[in-house]
Amino acid sequence: MPTVKLVDEQSASPRVKAIFDDIKATKKIDFVPNFWRALAAHPDNLERAWNQGKSIMKDGKISLLLKEIVAVAVSVTNSCRYCINAHTAACLKLGLDQESLGEVLAVIGLYNQFNKMADAFQIEPDILPKLE
Amino acid sequence: MPTVKLVDEQSASPRVKAIFDDIKATKKIDFVPNFWRALAAHPDNLERAWNQGKSIMKDGKISLLLKEIVAVAVSVTNSCRYCINAHTAACLKLGLDQESLGEVLAVIGLYNQFNKMADAFQIEPDILPKLE
Amino acid sequence: MPTVKLVDEQSASPRVKAIFDDIKATKKIDFVPNFWRALAAHPDNLERAWNQGKSIMKDGKISLLLKEIVAVAVSVTNSCRYCINAHTAACLKLGLDQESLGEVLAVIGLYNQFNKMADAFQIEPDILPKLE
Amino acid sequence: MPTVKLVDEQSASPRVKAIFDDIKATKKIDFVPNFWRALAAHPDNLERAWNQGKSIMKDGKISLLLKEIVAVAVSVTNSCRYCINAHTAACLKLGLDQESLGEVLAVIGLYNQFNKMADAFQIEPDILPKLE
Amino acid sequence: MPTVKLVDEQSASPRVKAIFDDIKATKKIDFVPNFWRALAAHPDNLERAWNQGKSIMKDGKISLLLKEIVAVAVSVTNSCRYCINAHTAACLKLGLDQESLGEVLAVIGLYNQFNKMADAFQIEPDILPKLE
Amino acid sequence: MPTVKLVDEQSASPRVKAIFDDIKATKKIDFVPNFWRALAAHPDNLERAWNQGKSIMKDGKISLLLKEIVAVAVSVTNSCRYCINAHTAACLKLGLDQESLGEVLAVIGLYNQFNKMADAFQIEPDILPKLE
Known about the structure:
6 copies of one chain form a homohexamer. Chain A contains 6 helices and no strands. By secondary structure, chain A is mainly alpha-helical. The first copy, chain A, folds into 2 domains: 1-56, AhpD-like (Up-down Bundle); 60-119, AhpD-like, CATH 1.20.1290.10. In chain A, helix 1 (14-27) runs parallel beside helix 3 and helix 4 (64-77) packs across helix 6 (98-121). The longest helix of chain A is centred in the C-terminal third of the chain and has 24 residues, at 98-121. The model of chain A has no long low-confidence stretch (mean pLDDT 94). Chain C binds chain E through residues 1, 3-4, 41-42, 44-45, 48-49, 78-80, and chain E through 79, 84-85, 88, 98-99, 101-102, 105-106, 109.
């Protein structure tokens, strides 16, 4: 049972409806994902989150695909079911092939292991050349 | 104080010394990072971890730089000080510029927020087209 | 499938039954939540956990509602499905309105993002005035 | 060593300087916290993060103090050193007394324990009355 | 919906089939757990992960049961549903009785609480006698 | 800077002093660890936490050493510096040798990796024989 009621497109207020339309147009999908429908229970949160996400998740200095790969890495490390599902699908839709996905998952697994081993040893960061 | 004694190159056993040499050659660095010096307290662990890391962290279907970016995303999400430091430096060494790093960090921050909001709502994953 | 068998009220031992009755009376509910039914598989754990929870989750210097809001913040950050559900419901039952819940969720989302960005930067805590 | 160079007020660009001034005025402090100085390495991130934070962290339906208490709960659960320090200080500055802080910490500890016990049992959420 | 297609024994390639057979023989089970069936979508990952797991999860200086108990502690702390289920079952199969399981769970709960309280206080590690 | 002032033995109230003495006697150490000195800022929390810890961390159905190993597994997975340090030291003091510690760390690393891979795949728990 969701913690808030999901807003559907039919009953959305004009303010929420406009954001729903922008979501569908920007993401080129024909439905409003549950994440945004849940956020719509609190329109200020919906607007703030959508504007933030829209301004970040687009091609920039790095590609949208690379950003979606980073989203998978974060979502897996946080064990977020909803987000793992959504961002893995986004990567595949943007052209990541299964073999490359396998490499991404291997790296994610590796560093979840190495991160904790580094913590276990309580080692200090290596002294590296300074940032210029 | 590290939880195990760091092994240094001078006092390393031949088995450990050979791995240390391979680490320096493979990573093109002139020192053995503390992570591997700590692992060397347990040579079986060192050998297993190094072989695993070496087989994953190389150019493949996706580039080593993309893999290092994934390593940063995992390490930040796990809040691993040692690894954030090491992998951010590796990204910069492999040519990631500061502006691109800024975009990576924005994506990492965004999904640490959105992951928890999705969890808060307890929403079900969207029904997406099947994997072929 | 739960990892332990849930104890039901009918088959509970007198020791467990007494705690179940105290749970229902204290929380003013007419069923024993699954959390306590699972803990009852190990009566020492049940008794210890219930006594601890009962002594903390009551009006004190800060109100029970504020404590339930803190419980939501912890549970969302830990992505605990069972607990998010239970403590969100407790907040609403204690009078938190939907708009206030929206503000709580916005703050929880914000700091899950900012926490990780602070970790990413590896910044030192600011020097603040001393605790008196 | 921070992962990015901290921007100081003297060398900040006019765009960054204006945000720094707004931070100091809004938070009624006479220095720019390291978090914002690090974000300033990427001015788009600084502007986006500051606007988001400013719009959330103010008195609303719930008080700023309650929001800072939620920030402490999130930051402790994420083990974020920088943020624990900053938000505990903010709570005390806003008038939370030591005894109340002790109650907040007890609740945070309690649910970090109970969250994991609930996960360990793999129990289903209780069936609760529907959200209206 | 799994993020990758689960490979079943009938359609597995000879390379994957050989690993599946080794998994069943080593673990003395008559089915291939979903974890390994999912990994099989990327045979390099399957081979690497299985070899790593097989070399670690066997009686050594410490017993396999103790290792499975450690696996439960890690899996609960990470809130990994699949793994909590699998490793709790493995402990019981290896002879851990319900009362001992209760003690393990109490310790896991205790330190998930104390870990966060220690983080909340931002205390320095105690000065302890040096490692020899 | 700790978030609360550490209480020292000289200035402790009689109630706190009695608990400090019990800590030293029970743990057979001649100083009060910082964790308990920080908790002492809130005597109710100190008393509750100490009583809980004392009742769990003793030989029972499973040994104190096994419990300390579980504490290491939890603390590493939570990346708790203070606790990793304290519980690794406790294991060594109770007789765990370096080689066994290496095996424990390998298992902890392994499952931090496998937990996240299982989450990445979004697989359902295997159907296992029922709990009796």
